[in-house]
């Protein structure tokens, strides 16, 4: 474990998991999703800022896009230096030096990754899940998180799928099957502020 990973200041009951937000979004059938990306990005930026203010660990869980010789920095560079549809979202969500990142080979952030070890080291009990696609990688990650006993929070405006119908289905599934708190991002940010005031 690195010194940063075991640092006491990083330990927290809640962590923000940003799923596949470092993404070029360059795939067939992306038109509907891209129309929602500006609003999605605004909400993600606000949520991350609130997490930073409350000193929550921020973990980027990102697909390797089947590029087995690449790493997170390569993916970030590709999205920032190439004229791709996801460039503006990535530009606004560039990881800070003290953020964490985990590369995943498949849909779930837990499958064949060190995410569970990291969360255990940080003593995290609750996950805020955000990112794309809501009905695929966010949903699969929620499923694996639920089976591992994590409490889940999903801010409605902070996930997006290829279609609105797919997104609504994913939110309903996470609420029913994974007992996730599905709520507006403003409500979540307010609850983080309230929890912080209760500790002081």
What is the CATH superfamily label?
A: Isochorismatase-like
Overall tally of domains: 1
- The number of helices is 7
Mean pLDDT: 89
Q: Which CATH architecture would you pick?
A: 3-Layer(aba) Sandwich
Q: What integer value in Å does the Rg equal?
A: 16 Å
Number of strands: 7
Structural class designation: alpha/beta
What general outline do the C-alpha atoms trace? globular
Query: Can you summarize the main beta sheet?
Result: 7 strands, parallel
Order of helices and strands: EHEHHEHEHEEHEH
CATH class: Alpha Beta
Measured by DSSP, the beta-strand proportion falls in: 15-25%
Query: Termini, distance in Å?
Result: 31 Å
Describe this structure in words.
The protein is α/β, with parallel strands linked by helices and 200 residues long. It has a single domain (8-193), classed as Isochorismatase-like (Rossmann fold, 3-Layer(aba) Sandwich), CATH 3.40.50. 45% of the residues lie in helices and 17% in strands. It has helices spanning 31-53, 72-81, 87-92, 115-122, 134-147, 164-177, 185-199, and strands spanning 14-19, 58-63, 100-104, 126-132, 151-155, 159-160, 181-183. Strands 1, 2, 3, 4, 5, 6 and 7 form a 7-stranded parallel beta sheet that branches. Strand 1, helix 1 (31-53) and strand 2 (58-63) form a beta-alpha-beta unit. Helix 1 (31-53) packs parallel to helix 7 and helix 5 (134-147) packs parallel to helix 6 (164-177). The longest helix is centred in the N-terminal third of the chain and has 23 residues, at 31-53.
């Amino acid at each position: 474990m690195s010194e940063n990973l075991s640092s006491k200041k990083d330990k927290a009951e809640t962590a923000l998991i940003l799923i596949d937000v470092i993404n070029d979004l360059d795939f067939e059938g992306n038109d509907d999703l891209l129309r929602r990306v500006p609003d999605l990005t605004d909400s993600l930026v606000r949520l991350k800022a609130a997490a930073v203010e409350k000193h929550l660990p921020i973990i980027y869980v990102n697909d390797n896009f089947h590029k087995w010789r690449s790493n997170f920095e390569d993916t970030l560079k590709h999205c920032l230096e190439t004229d791709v549809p996801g460039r503006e979202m990535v530009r606004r969500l560039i990881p800070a030096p003290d953020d964490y990142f985990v590369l995943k080979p498949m849909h779930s952030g837990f499958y064949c990754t060190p995410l569970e070890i990291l969360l255990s080291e940080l003593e995290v009990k609750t996950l805020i899940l955000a990112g794309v696609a809501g009905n695929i990688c966010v949903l699969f990650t929620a499923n694996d998180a639920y089976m591992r006993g994590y409490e889940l929070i999903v801010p409605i405006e902070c996930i997006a799928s290829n279609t609105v119908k797919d997104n609504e289905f994913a939110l309903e599934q996470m609420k029913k099957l994974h007992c996730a708190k599905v709520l507006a991002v403003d409500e979540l940010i307010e609850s983080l502020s309230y929890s912080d005031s209760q500790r002081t």
